[in-house]
Specification:
By secondary structure, the chain is an alpha/beta fold. It has one domain: 3-Layer(aba) Sandwich (Glutaredoxin). It is built from five helices and seven strands. The strands form two sheets. It has a five-stranded mixed beta sheet, sandwiched between helices. A two-stranded antiparallel ribbon has the order 1-2. The longest helix is centred in the first third of the chain and has 22 residues. The N and C termini lie far apart (64 Å). About 22% of the residues have low confidence.
Length: 158
């Protein structure tokens, strides 16, 4: 009898969690560059793209176009449950607005759902940051939460 109650409690909790995920209103505004799809940015803990940063949810065709154009493309492999990702979010949002990054664009890769990207780019873990320039990857860091180190990584794309 006790195990039945435990299973029912777990089932009820799972239903509540799913309801929260599917029916929660978005917490932020829309951000977009010309030629890019606007993306609603959610509130904390994932603040990537908040306050006018040029960070977008990953779309393969747009990503390939941006990388192929030779422009600086920054990538943050993110998971909502990742502590390092939560620290990286506000840092990378600030950095993309600094002088020198006016033409750079950033993509947020969802670690839990974008398996094709992870395989194609040999990404093994969340909190991975990548930098592309001239159509090729020029830098990568995993789990780095130092603003100084992330800035140095991003500057490889300039």
């Amino acid at each position: 009898m006790t195990s039945t109650r435990i299973l029912m409690a777990i089932w009820f909790g799972a239903l509540l969690a799913l309801g929260y995920v599917f029916f929660s209103p978005p917490g932020g505004g829309d951000v977009a560059l010309p030629g890019h799809r606007a993306v609603s940015v959610t509130a904390a803990p994932r603040q990537v793209g908040a306050d006018g940063g040029r960070w977008y949810d990953y779309e393969p065709a747009t990503f390939v176009q941006d990388v192929g154009s030779g422009r600086t493309v920054l990538v943050a492999v993110h998971a909502d449950w990742c502590g390092d990702c939560a620290v990286q979010g506000p840092i990378i949002t600030r950095l993309i607005k600094e002088p020198g990054f006016e033409t750079a664009v950033g993509y947020v890769i969802d670690f839990d759902s974008e398996r094709r990207f992870l395989l194609d780019h040999k990404v093994r873990t969340q909190s991975t940051l990548l930098v592309f320039r001239g159509g090729a990857e020029v830098g990568r860091a995993v789990g780095n939460t130092s603003e100084k180190d992330i800035r140095a990584l991003f500057q490889l794309g300039l």
